[in-house]
Amino acid sequence: MIKYLLRQALSWLIRIFLAVNLTFFIATWFLNPASNYAERRPPLSPAQIQAMLKPWNLSTDVPLLSRWWTWLSGILFHWNWGNSPVGASVNVQVGFRVMVSAQLMLGATLVAFVIGIALGVYSASRQYKVSDRVVQFISIIGLNTSVVVVSLFVVLVAVQINRAVGTRIFYVTGASSTGVTGVWNILVDKAQHLILPSICLVFITFASYAMMQRMLLLDNIAADYVRLARSKGLRAPVAIRRHALRTSMIPVMVQLAYSLPGVFTGAAITENIFAWNGMGKYFVDTIYKNDIYGAVAVAAFASLMTGIGAMLSDVFVVFLDPRVRVS
Fold first, then answer.
1. Which residues, 6+ apart, have CB-to-CB distance to 163 below 8 Å?
2. For 182-237, what is each residue's pLDDT tens digit?
3. pLDDT value at 5 more than 80
4. CA distance 295 to 146
5. DSSP label at 167?
6. Which of 79, 120, 160, 171 is close enough to 214 for a disulfide, judged by CB 3.0 to 4.6 Å?
């Protein structure tokens, strides 16, 4: 297994290297950093704009291959991913925003996964009953409701609760408050900022896990090996938990592993609504601000997360299904 994972890691590193370099050329082709200076007053001449971009290796007066090698050598030898058109360090921006997105997305994803699995199992074990219909109805609403609608509804409810109790329990914007001291106070402040966007993300995410888990579990409940276990005297809940559930969870765990890129870069709308400066918002900003190196760094990070997700999916399959052996 270790040798297989090492081979996979090497394979993914090669793919990531090729994808990142291809992204560099695509971003250079489509994004125009000089446009960030076009509205300056008094206006700048093209020569002045190129002179301002040159320190950041963004001037078109320098040949493209020369700019590419300067950028690539900076990464390989100094782990420097470059600067934005206004000189902001990409390393600093990505390092800060990854942690912001991790606070929001990792917790919400894990909670949505646990709730989805639990509801999927509950629904499948009560097929066609009222509780099964209720779970399916809620899941369908979650699947078909826009995150914007959910966010506005959650904000409206939170504001009304704050007014009713006469104090601020929920914070609508930002990841934290300034000037908060003390470990307990910091934790409470983080929770007050985190709960609203987390509710939105959990509501629009859990349904896919619940529906998939229900469908797969129903298929496995009717399988021969589960019926054989029950014919030997195993009660239905025990047979489902020991045999059907473990097999049916494999595709769901694979889906969870492959959702890693979206965990960090897929919450652009939610981060914008709640003013969280995470990776999703940063990705949108890099395109809007013609930040070539920022966009490439986000693509590189998403590629890395995809590779990690692919390897995690293999580990999950081997762990859940003892019949699988990776040579």
1. none
2. 888 888 888 888 899 899 889 988 988 999 888 888 888 777 777 777 777 777 77
3. no
4. 26
5. S
6. 120
In terms of C-beta distances under 8 Å and separation of at least 24 residues, what long-range contacts does 2-9 make, across chains too?
Answer: 4/314, 4/326, 4/327, 5/311, 5/314, 5/315, 8/307, 8/310, 8/311, 8/314, 9/307, 9/311
Closest CA to 93 of 273, 251, 283, 228: 283
Single-letter amino acid code for the residue at 139 = S
DSSP string for 29-95:
HH--GGGGGTT-SSPPPHHHHHHHHGGGT--TTS-HHHHHHHHHHHHHHH----B-TT--BHHHHHH
Structure tokens at 8: 């996979």
| Residue 265: pLDDT band with limits 50, 70, 90 | low
**Contact of 222 with 129, CB cutoff 8 Å:** no
